[in-house]
Specification:
By secondary structure, the chain is α/β, with parallel strands linked by helices. The protein has one domain: Hypothetical Protein Aq_1857, Chain: A, CATH 2.60.300. The chain has helices spanning about 5-20, 65-70; strands spanning about 5, 25-35, 35-45, 55, 60-65, 75-80, 85-90, 95-100, 105. The chain has a 4-stranded mixed β-sheet with strand order 3-2-5-4. A 3-stranded mixed β-sheet has the order 1-6-7. The protein has a two-stranded antiparallel ribbon with strand order 8-9. A hairpin with a 3-residue loop joins β2 and β3 (about 35-45). The longest helix is centred in the N-terminal third of the chain and has 13 residues, at about 5-20. The radius of gyration is 14 Å and the shape is globular. The two termini are about 15 Å apart.
């Protein structure tokens, strides 16, 4: 089981964490929503919650709750800039389909 970050994503998270003490890592999860079923949730983490899986990649700690991990195990988190837009992108090997706008996915 793993979650990994590209160099670009790790650098972006480190920048955010440096500006937001006492956050110690990144919380990644999913919630039911959208036309395809699930959407990614990304936030700061001040530490692990009971039942969290904790991963470390490129110097960044990533916290994932057990329910979400079943849906996003093996995901690579990237950070991309396209013109004036910038966003985290997820390469999730478990995805079977995505909505047209890219905001939600199904497994």
């Amino acid at each position: 089981m793993s979650i990994s970050l590209t160099e670009s994503a790790a650098n972006r998270v480190k920048t955010f964490l440096g500006a937001r003490a006492p956050a110690t890592g990144l919380r990644l999860g999913v919630r039911k929503t959208g036309c395809s079923g699930f959407a990614y949730v990304i936030n700061y983490a001040d530490g692990p919650q009971p039942g969290d899986a904790v991963f470390e990649d490129r110097g960044v700690r990533v916290f994932v709750d057990a329910d979400s991990l079943a849906l996003i195990d093996g995901t690579v988190v990237d950070f991309v800039k396209q013109g004036l837009n910038e966003a985290f992108r997820f390469r999730n090997p478990n995805v079977k389909g995505e909505c047209g706008c890219g905001e939600s996915f199904s497994v």
